[in-house]
């Protein structure tokens, strides 16, 4: 049995669900979804919770989307010529500039947890996609050990909770594409759920 497998056996099912959602949102913001991704999203199961309703809305939006169309939208939103419509970085949302103190603070936290920058990635580590995937890894023990709830809460408050909700609201407000707007609404609701849950642990 691998070390990672043994770690995951002690993770509560609801925390696995949280990690999956963090990872899913991160992947949607890291790159445009492939045809296989869209097929999976179109078949998402939902429930009567707030998050379930937004997953259903995303599934509906995916029904009318194509990989080619979403690739163009992703380029316009996050890359552009010089810069995209949105700048999904913690430093930018918190200070108005890139590569500022929030990024340095994040790098210090990454070092403490043993989180290393992926090879070949040129984006600053405070990109929203990277942060979503870091939370996934902390919950699932992908950086050597499962982060305690207090460690997760601290990481969320210090590096995500102060700005991610604003980013997702901006994404939800875009007029150019219903799929990414639905990702924005899903992210907005998820960040609020996480913030409320962490507040209850203080």
TrEMBL record:
Highest taxon of the lineage: Bacteria
Keywords: Chaperone
Pfam families for this protein: Nitrate_red_del
InterPro entries per the UniProt record, alphabetical: DMSO/NO3_reduct_chaperone, TorD-like_sf, TorD/DmsD_chaperones
PANTHER family for this protein: CHAPERONE PROTEIN YCDY, DIMETHYL SULFOXIDE REDUCTASE CHAPERONE-RELATED
Name of the molecule in the record: Molecular chaperone TorD family protein
Organism, scientific name: Roseibium algae
Taxonomic path: Bacteria, Pseudomonadati, Pseudomonadota, Alphaproteobacteria, Hyphomicrobiales
